[in-house]
Design brief:
Blueprint lengths: L2 H15 L2 H9 L4 H24 L2 H18 L9 H24 L3 H14 L7 H11 L3 H12 L4 H8 L3 H20 L2
């Protein structure tokens, strides 16, 4: 067993002992802030990685965006007021960082967002980290054809299994608008999946 795996195994029981509020309080105490932040990263890094990955597609880009996300979380955690759930706040930061990354890529390459999204779809088949079957690949391609907001909503509802209320808190929108967007996204995906 590698040293990092041993440390992770040792941290697992410790991590489960702390609620989000306890981690925030521990972080804000100052003397244990790095320890608390490491526990927070361990708790959320996999979920955040996959959330970002569904937006930016590429593994290396996802790592960069995830790192920026956790840096932003670290810098702003002292200001977190607990008026929303911690994971909602973290997802909002990750979502905004991923969208900003896509927009900056579009500006850097002087491409319309549609061309950037086509490029992302093409990367799916070239990505050595993509291990899905043909059906999964087609689903991912269908999701990438959705408008950005519908894609975010579909990913959070379908893949991340978040509730509409949680998604509404993350995206700062109404649950009614989310339900309509999700419904439209599902219809578009079904149509794409039915095509040969």
């Amino acid at each position: 067993m590698k040293e990092t795996e041993i440390v992770e195994e040792l941290l697992k029981p410790v991590m489960q002992e702390y609620s989000d509020n306890e981690l925030i309080d521990l972080f804000k105490q100052g003397e244990n802030s790095n320890y608390a932040f490491n526990l927070l990263v361990k708790k959320y890094q996999e979920k955040i990685y996959w959330h970002i990955r569904k937006i930016v597609i590429n593994h290396e880009d996802t790592d960069d965006v995830a790192q920026n996300t956790f840096i932003k979380i670290y810098k702003n955690l002292n200001n977190f007021r607990k008026d929303s759930q911690l994971f909602t706040w973290i997802y909002r930061i990750a979502t905004n960082e991923a969208i900003s990354f896509i927009k900056s890529k579009k500006r850097r390459l002087f491409l319309p967002i549609v061309d950037v999204e086509k490029g992302l779809a093409n990367k799916l088949t070239d990505d050595p980290y993509f291990d899905g079957d043909e059906l999964n690949l087609k689903l991912q391609q269908a999701v990438l054809k959705l408008p950005q907001k519908q894609r975010l909503i579909f990913n959070m509802k379908y893949f991340d299994e978040l509730k509409y209320k949680e998604i509404a808190d993350i995206l700062k929108t109404s649950t009614g608008a989310l339900k309509a967007s999700y419904h439209h996204a599902v219809k578009k995906i079904e149509k794409f999946m039915a095509e040969d």
